[in-house]
Amino acid sequence: MISDSEFVSAAEHLGFVKTYFLPVDDIPTNYSKLVSSPEEVLPGAKTLILMIMPYELAENNGSREGVISTYYRASQKAYKGTKELTSILINSGAHAIYNANIPLKSAIVKYNIGIQRLNSLTYIDGIGSAFHIQNIITDNEFELSILSAGFSPVDCSKCERCVKACPSKAISDTGYIDPDRCLRSVSEQKEIPKEVESLLGNRLLGCDVCQMVCPHNKVYGSERSFTYPLKKLLMGELGDLPDIIGPNLARNTRMICKACVLAANNERTDLLPLLEELAGSKDEFVLAAASRAIDRLEEKQ
Ligand code: SF4
Ligand code: SF4
After folding, report:
1. What distance in angstroms lies between residue 210's CA and the mean position of ligand 1's atoms?
2. pTM (2 decimals)?
3. Which residues line ligand 2 (CB under 6 A)?
4. Which domains does the chain possess?
5. Which of 228, 223, 236, 174 shows the shortest CA–CA distance to 205?
């Protein structure tokens, strides 16, 4: 079995800045139908481990290619790190599973790790909202973390910068996020609703506007934003994207469909020959996305 300090040190080495050891019998159950019971997923479970990995919010670089939010690159790093930590536990003789179906926002609030703000995101003191949280359930015994509410109170109603800055007006003044309008959730879909397609601009994946305007976050320069060429996407050349953002999000058809939207948004008439080829695709989604992009580009000419 592994000690508290050995586990925390391994987690830090992989980029996690905070590790919390929590009781398994106290996991939030507000979405009870979705939550895996710890005993069900791991008989004899003793500890829920929550680990926090921050990432850097970067300004959009204004490119006419596809911009991917820093969130997605960091997500893969956090996921791979969690898999490695789970292996470390198993190799030490414990049983462990990672990525259990736990309502993590609720857990952050419940365990006083952070608070939820008006843009629906959770904030951790000293980190802000730009972080990944990962979980492991194990039968390894750790000394449980003692947490007390420590976040400086802020009245979001006197700020509302995120509500005003949201490009698609997805945040209500009560903090409800409309998933059909939120560009971050829309950008993860294969089919982009027409009502918001132009608002995506050059965003291939993600939108961090509500986080970037929040005074509790630090934003870095645009040189840190990650861009992928639309031409390559339209040609189905994903390169190392599956490794960078994960194979689930980097599926070929999904990327081609979004590249079509972005080609039209960014008036990339140089990509018309490729779009015309794709408009003859046997895939109904690709065919529709390419035809739509051609129509939009022709309207703009
Ligand atoms: S991620 Fe973007 S679109 Fe979604 S709520 Fe925040 S600012 Fe609005
Ligand atoms: S931008 Fe202002 S209103 Fe929005 S979450 Fe941050 S502090 Fe709250």
Report:
1. 5
2. 0.88
3. 117-119, 154, 156, 159-162, 213-216
4. 4-138 (3.40.109), 159-300 (no CATH)
5. 228
